Amino acid sequence: MALSPELDRITNRIVKRSEKTRRAYLDRMDGARKDGPKRAHLTCGNQAHAYAPMGDDQERLMAGQAGNIGIITAYNDMLSAHHPFQAYPDLIKNVARNAGGTAQVAAGVPAMCDGITQGQTGMELSLFSRDAIAMSAGIGLSHNVFDSTVYLGVCDKIVPGLVIAAATFGHLPAVFLPAGPMTTGQSNDDKAKVRQRFAEGKADRSDLMASEMASYHGPGTCTFYGTANTNQMLMEFMGLHLPGASFVNPNTPLRDALTEHGARRALEISDLGDEYTPVSQVLDERAYVNGIVGLMATGGSTNLLIHLIAMARASGIILDWSDFAAVSANIPLLTRVYPNGLADVNHFHAAGGLGLVISELLNAGLLHDDTQTITGSGLNDYTKDPKLVDGKLDWHAGPETALNDKIIASVKEPFQVSGGLSDLKGNLGSAVMKISAVAEERRNITAPVRVFRDQQPVLDAFRAGEFDSDVIVVVRYQGPRANGMPELHNLTPCLAVLQERGIKVALLTDGRMSGASGKVPAAIHVTPEALDNGPLAYLEDGDIVTVNAVDGIISVADDAVFARQISHPDLSHNNIGLGRELFDMFRQNAGPAEAGASVFNF
Question: Which bin fits 508, alpha (ψ -120 to 50), beta or left (φ > 0)?
Fold first, then answer.
């Protein structure tokens, strides 16, 4: 099927906008490649240090004729999603040896969990951990002894940070190997109901704890379709995963076979082989458009509106929120996975998964099918399912229709005709909203505001019964420069309770919302942020504001509010405690959310 003219227009607009920065980036990558693998150029002392612990692999490393894989791992045994990576380096090293190559763990990168830090002080380091991860990976790869790379990461900031690093070292091939989702436990919908009951005082902490432990019960990614699983979707749509690899459960024979195949593939596409596939050629403008299409078609996490922009800039490509809005207007919503439905990612995978979604979009001309991928072919490879038959891994034709049409829809009969995200603009700045789980009648609200500068006072006001009529809850001074732009997911249960009581409610903030944000309309990432004298800084309780995701508007009714004198609150308490001291330079140098909220000057 020929590419949609509108998608072609959007892509060409990005190409034109990025012409100078992309050319400069590719020139840098070409220069890095021309020097060739660097092991032979190191001094004997340099090489001895690099090979000292490698035992029987030393001779092959010294010969410099076989590929050496640099492994970047986000393993730790506290995060369920990253726990399975403990075994990966040994698998990769054995595969490399059998193929005549070698592999070394080049670096471990930090991996924090937003689920653990949600509503806690540590969440103020979460967004900046993305850039710290990129820097940590860069330190490992700076040893300059690798011909190819393998990245082990799953969750919210980890994959975007690793992609930024991979793009920066874009002359090297990169294969991303996931760990897969945990098996299904208590349903996400039941978990959310217990949280709401707890917020109303109808469940005690023991009830809440039992529910949470039944939901998060083993190794692997959380099973809802939040930021972590949206990351996995992107890596398939953008060609950095093996086809069908994202949602295979951990510690299974198929999972191990995919890991081993990925390691072999990393060697095959190095510059020492015949299929050289540097990540700089994989991550082009078409790949990023495909990623945005996937985000819209699956109703993915709003966090990726920040991360994709930052990832693209590391690739010399300039995206902005208008690109997301334009793609959203032309891409139907094809999935219902919690919080956009009752199914979890295991149910989604069983119903046809990403392969079926990609097939539907390709057949409708809604994806670039000619992108470079780590398989050596275009995106058509990603319509196939991996199977382990008699111990041999191969890819077979995937289903042509959904095995459950309540989870995956067709392009001809989608769940909704446009994508899952809305771009909002007006005299209150720019913002975004995830609308795939928000009922249509709740996407447009005009109401008085209640203004807060943190989450806790909102919760206190809720418990005191102060919200008894339609309201837009403004939580400001939550931007990158103010306090690291934490997620405000702790507000979801109480705001959902207000909705169920018949009150129209919306959240308006310069902070972030969780990738699990659902049925409450939340206009987030407001730019400029309040600390930059953004419009939110001028609002006072009672001002009449419109949050309209249908027409893409965030505005205050009376422009006279902007004549007010503003005085920013004392935010010095954001600078100390739980490592926040170490991230002061990040807060001072962070860019706006609409530019990726990054400290890097790409």
Answer: beta
- 411/331 Cα distance (integer angstroms): 9
Give the length of the chain. 602
Residue that is written with structure tokens 């059998």 in the block: 98
The DSSP symbol for 124 reads G
Q: Which residue has the tokens 């596409």?
A: 269
Residue 343 near residue 248, CB atoms below 8 Å: no
Which of 442, 482, 447 lies closest to 557, judged by CA?
Answer: 447
Identify the helix (H) or strand (E) that includes residue 106.
strand 102-108
Name the pTM for this structure.
Answer: 0.94
CB 597 within 8 A of CB 480: yes
Cα distance between residue 14 and residue 515, in whole Å:
26
Distance between CA atoms of 448 and 546, rounded to whole angstroms? 9
Unique residue bearing structure tokens 């196939």: 384
**484 Rama class: left (phi>0) / alpha (psi -120 to 50) / beta:** left
Strands 544-548 and 444-452: antiparallel
d(CA 358, CA 374): 16
Going along the chain from its start, the domains and CATH numbers come out as: 5-183+218-397 (no CATH), 421-595 (3.50.30.80)
Digit-coded pLDDT (tens) for 498-547: 999 999 999 999 999 876 667 899 999 999 999 999 999 999 999 999 99
591 contacts 480 by C-beta, under 8 angstroms: yes
Q: Whole-angstrom Cα distance, residue 441 to residue 423?
A: 18
- Cβ–Cβ under 8 Å, residues 298 and 339: no
Would you give the DSSP letter of residue 182? P
How far apart are the C-alpha atoms of 573 and 580, rounded to whole Å? 10
> pLDDT tens digits, residue range 141-177?
999 999 999 999 999 999 999 999 999 999 999 999 9
Using alpha carbons only, what angle is made at residue 332 by residues 298 and 520, rounded to the nearest 5 degrees?
A: 60
- C-alpha triplet 299, 305, 308: angle, nearest 5°: 110
The Cα 68–Cα 101 span in angstroms is 6
Token pair, residue 346, equals 């295991």
Q: What is the signed CA dihedral for 227, 152, 127, 323, rounded to 10 degrees?
A: -60
Q: pLDDT category, 188, cuts 50, 70, 90?
A: low
3-state SS class at 68: strand
* DSSP bridge pairs for 335: 408
Query: Which pair of structure tokens corresponds to residue 484?
Result: 């690291």
What is the bridge-based pairing of β-strands 553-556 and 544-548? antiparallel
CA gyration radius for the chain? 24
Burial of 405 (0-12, 13-18, 19+ CB in 10 A): middle
